[in-house]
Each structure stands twice: as structure tokens, then as C-alpha cells.
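Supplementary material to the annual report.
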Amino acid sequence: MKNLDSVLAAYLAGWAIFFVYYISVAQRMSTLREEVERLKSLLTKGK
Amino acid sequence: MLKSTLKASILFVLLAVTAYLAFYYAPIERTMGIIQKIFYLHVSSALSSFVAFSVCFYANLRYVFTRQAKSDWLGVSAAEVGLAFIFVVLITGPIWAHPVWGIWWTWSPRLTLTFVLGLLYVSYLLLRSMIEEPDKRALFSAVFGIFAFLDVPLVYFSIRWWRDQHPTPVIMGGPGSGLEPRMRVSYLLMWGALTGLLILLMNARYKLEALRASVEELRREAEVQ
Amino acid sequence: MALLSNTAVLLGKELRTEFRSRELLTTTVVFVLLIFMIFSITFHPTTTESQQFGPGLLWVAFLFAASLMLQPCFLREQANDTLSALRLSVSDPFAIFFAKLTANTFFLLLTELLMLPFFAGFFNVRVFAVLPQLIVVFFLGSLGIAIPGTAFSAICAQARMRELMLPLLLLPVLTPILIATTEVTAALLQPEPSMNFAGLAIITGFDVVFLTALWLFGEYLLEE
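Predicted assembly:
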């Protein structure tokens, strides 16, 4: 079918953008969680 | 953890279902052929981005008047997610345009508006990264966000008027003209799924911002010690 | 009214500061001349092409010049922390913005009028016949540039990379101004000039919306 690859490319690109964004948020989240743990242990050690 | 994975999975399944519907259930458009099916994603993403930016505007107003950090978190989340949807619009558009018009881009009113909208909110996010002090960052980006949002209808009307001054041949009657019921269902379902995605992404980003705020607070405590 | 008298005093200060050194005006004028020269390289300025591209390029030149000219607006208040003094001296913080945006509009308008003969000469465009109408467009357009420009100058004064941030914030917002002023100017520079009132309405609407927004939210940009 004519242009089917364009349609597939468009949907794939769209889903990819959403997926990549979600992953980036999740990654930043886990980095921050590690930071929280690090700071918490630093504070309890200080006390 | 399990709950959010479940929610995400449901949503991705829903997206897959709507994609399937768009492909098989909705009929093939007469003049354009199968490439018209890109519009389900393209148009729905545009609508969702406008919803996101409206939420950002609301959050900006709330922050200016209440100074609650939560409003700031909502604002940046809405702006980022809105921008993600705008990118989808700006990529699916040219992918559609190239086979149909033979060109990747044209400064049609809709595309120009989308481009300017993207630039406005990229500037919003850039501004935030350039102000270090959290309260000032929240306040100044909120004021800019308000200005940017008030600009949107002006941009839309001026571009429409500009294009009316220089009419170009319209290649197709616009995706909303004379919708067959099966197409209408596909549009609605796609938009529903994308709205769900919007809420999911904004929720995740909001939690990230809240966590970042608590990290900053912990850092300040650690410095004091 | 306290607002007007405060504004008048501050406006006097702004004008005196600039006319003492005239550095803002001279650098802006030179910059616009430079842009004209660069434009002349990018397209061959025959009469038809000048009429096609001229109005848009004229306003692009004004926009770029304004992005630079608006930088010092609030930056120079940071040097000796004069902003706090300003805040204390007025009862309505909007007076500070009102004075600065009036001064900025005036400087922009002055630059544009100074540059108009050069534009007419370099690009062989007839401007004298429609001079009053052009002044109207220039005034309303400059107001449209100055209002958000002054607000964003206040924002950028507190941000890093401020020289880059001001154009980045300002230019997308000014899209309606660029579109409308270009169209109105183009209509005026036609062989049969006409006044595009719809375009003027858009520019005026823009000015009103952003002046109101600045009036409502400007004071938050002046907070400590």
C-alpha cells in the first residue's frame, strides 16, 4: 500500500517521543532517589 | 511502584488499541489514502498540548497569587509534557506532508503556530534553567508563562489574518471536514488515550519535581551541619 | 495622579541618563545600518524585490536592534543597586515600568525614524508620501516591542546568560507584532499605498493586552 511506511514512521516516531520522555523522567527520578539516600545517611551520620 | 507500572501498562495497551483502530477500523480516506491516518495522532497530540499549556497557565497564575511550590511543580510539568506533545505534532506533520505535498514543511497557519508555541515553552524551560534561586525561578518563570500564554491567541489570529492576506491553495479541506462516524470514533478514542498519557506523564514529572525540592531541602540541611 | 507624576519623574531620569551619553542610541543606529548592509548582500535590492522583502527586513532589523537596546534597561539598575532605591521612591511599582517602557518606546521610535531615510535610500523605496502613516505604525509597533521587552529585561537581569535570554524570550512573543507591522508597512510602501486597518487593530490589541498584563503582574518582577 502506498505511503504505508510513512504512516508507520509517524506513529513510531510519536510513540518513541513519549517513551523516551517517560524513560528520561524515570531515570532522573532514580538518580534523585539515590541522592536522597546519600543525603539522608550523611545527615544521620552527622547527628 | 507496582501501581504505576500497572497504570503505564494499561495506558500503553490503550494506545496500541487506538492505533489498531485508527489503522483498521477507521475507513481509508478517499482522496489522501492511508496517509490521512497520521492525523489521528497529529491532531490529538496538538489538542493535548493545548490542554497541557492551559494547565501550565493555570499553575502560573496560582503560583503568582499563592506562592505555593506545588503550583510551580505543576507548571513545569505541564510545560515539559506539552512540549513533548508539540514535538510529536512537529514530527508527524512533516512525515505526512512529504508524500502528500512533496515538501517537508510549509508555513501554514497551524504549523507556524505550533512552531511558535514550541519556541515559547522552550524559552520558558530555558529561563528556568538560568535562574538558580528557587523562589525567584518560580516567580519569574510564572510571569513569563503568563505572558507567553496570553500571546497564544494573538499569535493564532495574526497568523490566520496574515495567511488570509496571502491565500494559498488549500490542498485538502482540513481534517475535521465531514467526518465519517468511524473516523470520529477513532479520533475520540485517540484523544482519550492521549489525554490519559498526558495525565500519566504530568504525574510522573510532578513527582520528580517534588522529589527535587526535597533534595534541595536536604542539601541545605546538610550544609548547615 | 500619583502614578503619572511618579512616571514623569522617572521618565525624566531615563531620558536624561540616555541623552547625557547617547551610547544606547548611537550603538543601536550603527547596528541597524549594519543589518541593512547585510540585507543588501542577501538579496539584490531591485525595486520589486525591495518592495517584496523590504518591509519584513526593516522590521527584522528593528526587532534585532530592540533586543540589544533593551538589555541595559534593568541591568544598569543592578550596578549600584539603584532598583531598591527606585522601589522605595514610588508608591506604585508600575510607575517604574511605565517610565521605562515609555523611554524605550521613545528611543526605538527615534532610531526607526532616523533609519527610515537610509532604508528609503538604500532600497529605493518611496516613504515620504506616507510618512505620517508610517509614524503611526512605527509608534504602535515600537510600543508593542517595548512593553514585553521591558518586562523581560527585568526578568533577564536576574538570570544567567542574560544577553542570549532576552532575544530568546522576546522574539517568539513578538511574532504577532512582526507579522502585523510587516503587513501594514508593506501596504504603505506599495505603488498605491493603503492603510491596513486590520493590521493596526492587531498591533493595538497586542499593545493593550500586554500593557494590561504588565500592569497586573509587573510588580512581582520587582520583588526582592
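Chain A is about 90% helix and 0% strand.
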